[in-house]
Design brief:
Reductase_C, binds flavin-adenine dinucleotide, 404 residues, oxidoreductase, 27 strands, FAD-oxidoreductase/Apoptosis, 5-stranded parallel sheet, FAD, alpha/beta, FAD-dependent oxidoreductase
Length: 404
């Protein structure tokens, strides 16, 4: 009898898992269930081209592919419970559906700011297409925006808004921006970049309350400073959606705990994407990541596991961001290094910062330097010994590998 796999969550991880299942030869039924009212779409443009009105929403696969891959789907449907005793899920309508294999691709939701005034009109978060549409519409009417949180999403939004002639102030509680992903030098680079475009960034600043009668009027900080705003955008991080996993008594920490094969503590249930905590080969510890490349790669691993193949999740995490005319690409994760080498990219006016431990490349941060980024991805994975003197010349990075 044909087996049935249910995938919960219809976004990057979910759709990669579904299509990969077919590629690995899964013959049974595939049912995707998602609580958004749209087929899987590209999320990264929401804070970039979509907000700039340069692009519209882009589906990851056209609807016709669902027929081609024989993937059934249900939109606008939440899964409320997993019942492991009879291998079924319960939908928000009360309907029960049985599964043979289950995949949790439930991603994350925005962390909410819970202070006085945080439910006033004019406050925005950005996670999905509905948030982006609301924000895009609202921006037509605003002149002054305060962004709370100087992470990638907050800064990408800042770059878009300032170019639309909106006054932008970014408030960050930490002593520097992007501190989770970048070193001090790169934090300062982005502070400077935004300052040159007119964005005011304040660090070391705690928000006390948001003031306004019905609608946002200003943001008040602990040090007494006040920033007038007719809109406040909050980007203070993502919380993994683990509640469904808890209904099945799966092991959960800061994410659904999976092994390197994307398997949860229940053999019939895999998980992939932003919702998982997984053992990273590169970092030699467990991590939860919020990046598209990880979601897609881990989903492929999960699909392999479900279809009886054992392919460990060991892909190198990488990430990108776009702010003004700068394309930042990061390969690897900042961890142990003892030397940084900077290379200029004369063709594109960019540069790369390469982080070495001994003569092995651990991480690369590239700005408008796609060539070094591509080469770095390969070198970080293969870990060859590198000629550090040659790296400091204009030589192609791939040619800097020391001969054995
Ligand atoms: C504005 C923005 C810009 C970004 N830019 C970049 C970028 O430049 N580069 C990069 O690498 N990454 C970027 N990211 C991050 C990237 O989009 C995420 O890493 C990726 O979307 C993770 O995919 P996922 O499938 O794991 O989770 P999600 O995309 O969070 O999808 C999970 C889905 O599951 C649904 N769901 C959850 N629970 C249930 C349930 N019980 N029942 C039914 N459905 C459920 C959710 O509604 C959602 O649709 C960005 C994210 C945002 C929001």
């Amino acid at each position: 009898m044909s087996q049935k796999c249910i995938i919960i969550g219809m976004s990057h991880a979910g759709i990669h898992l579904a299509t990969s299942l077919r590629q690995y030869g899964w013959q049974g039924e595939i049912l995707m269930i998602g609580n958004e009212d749209i087929l899987p779409y590209h999320r990264p443009p929401l804070s970039k081209g979509f907000l700039k009105k340069q692009s519209n929403i882009a589906l990851i696969h056209p609807e016709s592919d669902f027929e081609k891959y024989q993937i059934q789907f249900r939109l606008s449907t939440s899964v409320d419970f997993i019942q492991i005793h009879n291998k079924s899920i319960v939908l928000d309508s009360g309907e029960e559906i049985n599964y043979d294999k289950l995949a949790l691709c439930t991603g994350g939701r925005v962390r909410k700011l819970n202070i006085r005034g945080s439910t006033l009109k004019g406050i925005h978060y950005l996670r999905d297409i509905r948030d982006a549409q609301k924000l895009r519409e609202h921006l037509k009417y605003v002149k002054k925006v305060v962004i709370i949180g100087a992470g990638f999403i907050g800064l990408e939004i800042a770059a878009v808004l300032i170019e639309q002639g909106i006054k932008v102030t970014v408030l960050e509680v930490n002593s520097r921006i992007l501190s989770r992903n970048l070193d001090v030098v790169m934090s300062n680079y982005f502070i400077q970049l935004h300052a040159e475009h007119g964005v005011e960034i304040k660090t070391n600043i705690d928000i006390r309350e948001i003031q306004g009668k019905h609608h946002v009027e200003s943001v008040i900080c602990d040090d007494g400073s006040k920033f007038d705003a007719d809109s406040v955008i909050i980007g203070i991080g993502v919380i993994p959606n683990v509640e469904l996993a808890l209904t099945a008594d799966l092991e959960v920490e800061n994410g659904i705990v999976v092994d390197k094969f994307a398997c949860t503590s229940n053999v019939d249930i895999v998980a992939a994407g932003d919702c998982t905590l997984f053992p990273s080969d590169h970092l030699q510890r467990s991590v939860r990541m919020e990046c598209l490349a990880n979601a897609a790669d881990q989903a492929k691993t999960a699909a392999a596991t479900l279809s009886g193949n054992s392919i460990p999740h060991s892909a190198l995490p990488w990430f990108w961001s776009e702010q003004y005319d700068k394309r930042l690409q990061i390969a690897g994760v900042i961890d142990h290094y003892d030397q940084v080498i900077i290379r200029q990219d004369f063709t594109n006016g960019g540069f790369s910062r390469l982080y070495f431990e001994g003569n092995v490349l651990k991480m690369a941060v590239c700005v408008n330097s796609a060539k070094d980024f591509i080469a770095s991805k390969q070198l970080i994975v293969q870990k060859p010994a590198i000629d550090l003197k040659l790296v400091q010349t204009e030589a192609n990075l791939k040619q800097c590998v020391l001969k054995k």
